[in-house]
């Protein structure tokens, strides 16, 4: 009797997962593009789904590695579910790499657009968010040329991650966008994707500049130089190449690679006046020189390094001021975190000014101090010279 009861219990416990979804029934979504239909006002959602058989290493296929489903709906969720009316896979979003938003939607506000992804928790917080400039977001996601990676969403993700090697573009993920748009004392800047053509008229996607938001609404763009200044000011510089006129010959250039950088923003309160000091400390190496003047002498080499440091100091300061001027005069948006710095150092003062901070930020005085150090001129003592 005991054995019979035991067997019955085991049968009950060993039942299968009746509500599971088989892997072959899922469409693994790599990227999402969201636009707005100007006529109906409905969302247009383009999902880029992986075709596993096309990327198999054991059985190579000539098929495209992804399939794109385009659907519409009054909400993002409705549009996504509508894909099941014409597509044979249910979207699985846990591996999504990038969400691209059209300009029109971004100007209206992103929080309602991104609510589904944040609320449902199926999309992870580190997925990148980008703005499609001067083109539909769906077209950005559909460009299949311009890199080695065959999956467009992967290629865009890699481009965004590579901002650690250069200064002319920026990035933000879903979680940080929420933190900066909902929080106080800082406004978000989002990566910008646009379509360009090469000399053969072949289209490719370019990551360039930054999209400035006031809360969750797009208010304008930073160009590449302003983006460089923004990243210096926000202490988001890991590496990058800077080209400068040579101290020896202004018509020739040399390249400096940034190796280390750190920026701090220090508020000063005197009565009712609030000001800020931006301190940048960085170092790098000279990686390239077009001039052929010999630097064999230690004194000359040190003098050359000092002049290059001075040029770097001036260039970084110039880029930072360009970014701050744009943010203050045109956008009235504190994208650098001056308010956060004030809240950290002077919380009582911050509580008194936070309600109209962006208006105050537009007039706040600031000082920029840059200290850049050249650590090396490379392995050679000076540029190569042809011998007579």
UniProtKB/TrEMBL annotation:
Pfam family name, one: Spore_GerAC
Keywords from the UniProt entry: Coiled coil, Germination, Lipoprotein, Membrane, Palmitate, Signal
Annotated Spore germination GerAC-like C-terminal domain residues: 208-378
Gene3D superfamilies given in the database record: Nutrient germinant receptor protein C, domain 1 (6.20.190.10), Nutrient germinant receptor protein C, domain 3 (3.30.300.210)
One Gene Ontology term from the biological process aspect of the record: spore germination
UniProt domain Spore germination protein N-terminal: residue ranges: 19-195
Compartments where located: Membrane
PROSITE patterns recorded: PROKAR_LIPOPROTEIN
A cellular component annotation (GO) from this entry: membrane
Membrane topology classification: Lipid-anchor
Stretches assigned to coiled coil: 295-326
Family note: Belongs to the GerABKC lipoprotein family.
Protein name: Ger(X)C family spore germination protein
């Amino acid at each position: 009797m005991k054995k019979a009861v035991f067997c019955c219990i085991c049968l009950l416990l060993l039942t299968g997962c009746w509500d599971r979804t088989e892997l072959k029934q899922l469409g693994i979504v790599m990227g999402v593009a969201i636009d707005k239909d100007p006529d109906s006002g409905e969302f247009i959602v383009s999902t880029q789904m992986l075709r596993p058989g096309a990327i198999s290493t054991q059985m190579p296929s000539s098929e495209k590695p992804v399939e794109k489903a385009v659907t519409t709906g009054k909400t993002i969720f409705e549009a996504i579910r509508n894909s099941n009316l014409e597509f044979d896979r249910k979207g699985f979003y846990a591996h999504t790499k990038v969400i691209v938003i059209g300009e029109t939607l971004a100007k209206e506000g992103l929080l309602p657009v991104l609510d589904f992804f944040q609320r449902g928790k199926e999309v992870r917080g580190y997925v990148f968010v980008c703005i499609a400039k001067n083109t539909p977001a769906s077209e950005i996601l559909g460009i299949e040329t311009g890199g080695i990676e065959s999956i467009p969403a992967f290629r865009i993700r890699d481009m965004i991650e590579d901002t650690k090697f250069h200064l002319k573009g920026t990035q933000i993920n879903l979680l940080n966008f929420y933190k900066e748009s909902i929080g106080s004392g800082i406004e978000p800047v989002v990566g910008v994707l646009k379509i360009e053509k090469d000399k053969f008229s072949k289209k490719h996607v370019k990551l360039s500049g930054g999209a400035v938001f006031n809360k969750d609404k797009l208010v304008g763009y930073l160009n590449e130089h302003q983006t460089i200044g923004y990243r210096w000011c926000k202490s988001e510089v890991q590496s990058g190449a800077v080209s400068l006129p040579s101290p020896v010959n202004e018509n020739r250039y040399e390249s400096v690679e940034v190796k280390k950088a750190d920026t701090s923003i220090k508020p000063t309160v005197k009565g009712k006046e609030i000001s800020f000091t931006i301190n940048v400390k960085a170092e790098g190496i000279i990686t390239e020189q077009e001039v052929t003047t010999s630097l064999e002498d230690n004194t000359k080499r040190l003098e050359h390094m000092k002049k290059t440091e001075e040029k770097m100091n001036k260039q970084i300061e110039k880029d930072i001021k360009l970014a701050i001027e744009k943010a203050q005069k045109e956008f009235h948006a504190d994208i650098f975190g001056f308010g956060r710095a004030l809240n950290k150092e002077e919380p009582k003062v911050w509580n008194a000014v936070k309600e109209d901070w962006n208006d105050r930020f537009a007039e706040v005085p600031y000082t920029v101090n840059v200290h850049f150090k050249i650590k090396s001129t490379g392995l050679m003592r000076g540029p190569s010279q042809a011998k007579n």
